[in-house]
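Sanity check record (used in CI):
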Amino acid sequence: MIRYIIKRLLYMIPVLLGVILLVFLIMHLAPGNVAAMILGENATPEQISALENEMGLNRPILIQYFDYLWQLLHGNFGISYASGDPVTKKIFACFPYTIKLTVVAAVVSILLALPLGVIAAVKQNTSIDNFSMVLSLIGVSMPIFWFAVMLILLFSLKLRWFPVYGANSWKSIVLPALSLGVMNMASIARTTRSAMVETIRQDYIRTAYAKGLSKRVVIMRHAFRNGMLPTITVIGLEIGQMLGGSVLTETVFAWPGVGRLMIQAINGRDTPMVMGCIVLMTVCFSFVNLMVDLLYGVANPRIRTMYR
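Expected output for ABC transporter permease:
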């Protein structure tokens, strides 16, 4: 197991290198001049050229890339072009808000999706099954920013139950978490239903019924656990998408997380801040995938034996 974890952690290195290089190229090809944006419209060409030399922006892109990697190896994410503050300080001030939003949204998504998928599988081809799948299809089809705006119009402007923006109280997280969780609930529910429908047709399920076990025991103890492997995969992917999808949610609700910080950095061509946000999200996504693989061993003893 330890060797497997170390192997997966080593696989993260080329992923990070590729992501950093790709973002570097995208930011370099984006229109606009960083030095001119920092100095303002009244800056002279001489002032812009001097600032580019000072910041190293006139060097070849590959030199800037390897220089950033060298700083990253020493735990330095660089200095923000916009504020002049260390990127690490700003990112880790916003990161707890993104984690809090993702965790609450994941809990909402799982608590809604798993019962919905199990009930739809047990009540296959009934009105309950059709209703749950239509609900899931609507959830998959709705753009997250549109759903977030609809929640604001209903619960904030009309009913005045929750605030429109900010993170001042526990009420502030309800609408962002609901927006992010409901959108990802649909995929988990559909996968759970498909896995459960296939599992409850297996021979050992019929044997369990023949032994006289109740339907609840057969479904929850035998079918649900064995049908959880595809669902665990989708939950892990959805949590990773929540980290990335929180960009839109945090922007709509003005939630002070890493996603909103990254949008502000992109608009300001603040390359070190953008790089820091993306590196952090990439590492988080990779760790989520690692945790999914380890949860396979918890759900299925055969996989745990393979790790040994």
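The CA atoms of residues 52 and 58 lie 6 Å apart. If this sentence no longer matches the regenerated tokens, the check is flagged for review.
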